Amino acid sequence: MQSENPIIADFVKVANSAAGTLAGMGREARENAREKMKEAMGGLDFVSREEFDAVKDMAAKAREDGDALRTRLDALEAKVFGHETPAEKHD
Asked: How far apart are CA 22 and CA 13, in angstroms?
């Protein structure tokens, strides 16, 4: 039969309790760190890759439209003012 020393039994109980407490503190610290990171990141304005690509495509299309309008305007000015544009006349 195994004899149980009360001092060792108490020490084991305290050690088990401390281990459980430390594990709980570790989980709580991890969760708090995650929450803080979410709060910090939530204040920043990040966009998704899809949103970035959509805006990039819109900007490229706007540039193309602007270039096409510039070409049409140059052609109209050449028709109205001859081969010189008003900008060239003032130079």
From this structure: 14
